[in-house]
Specification:
Layout lengths: L1 H21 L24 H4 L30 H17 L3 H25 L13
Helix pairs in contact: 3-4
Length: 138
């Protein structure tokens, strides 16, 4: 019975996290420029922001569900895309639960930056395209 209850609690947490990510239960018209915390699509920081003075922040935590190498204290540019996507979800969750609008906005900005760095990391992580075969059997 205890294992079943633990499994149900794990499933409930997963569903709540998904609902939070999708914007369920949010007040419409929240400030902050979109993203999961406002019920809109997740925002991705543009390259101009990532290349700016504050565009490559240090990672402040390792998401609880991250099972890989810890990146707390690393710059976002030093992290793999999978880690950054999970970090963005966590930052959106924190923003949604934040009562201070200014702090919530900064968390959403960092979530967008994590997604921007994840996009860049995916480009780095992509294997190079195979060279086309030539007409001479090479």
């Amino acid at each position: 019975m205890g294992d079943e209850l633990a499994e149900l609690m794990r499933i409930r947490k997963a569903i709540e996290a998904l609902a939070l990510h999708l914007g369920a239960g949010r007040k419409s018209g929240a400030q902050g420029g979109g993203g999961a915390a406002t019920g809109g699509p997740p925002q991705v920081a543009p390259d101009s922001d990532l290349d700016g003075k504050y565009g490559d922040p240090k990672v402040i935590l390792n998401p609880r569900n991250w099972t890989g190498e810890p990146y707390k204290g690393s710059l976002m540019s030093e992290c793999p895309s999978d880690f950054l996507e999970q970090l963005a979800l966590v930052l959106d969750e924190f923003a949604a639960g934040e009562s201070d609008d200014k702090k919530a906005r900064y968390k959403r900005v960092d979530a967008a930056r994590a997604r921007g760095w994840a996009r860049r990391a995916r480009k780095r992580e992509e294997p190079p395209a195979p060279a086309p075969d030539d007409d001479f059997g090479g």
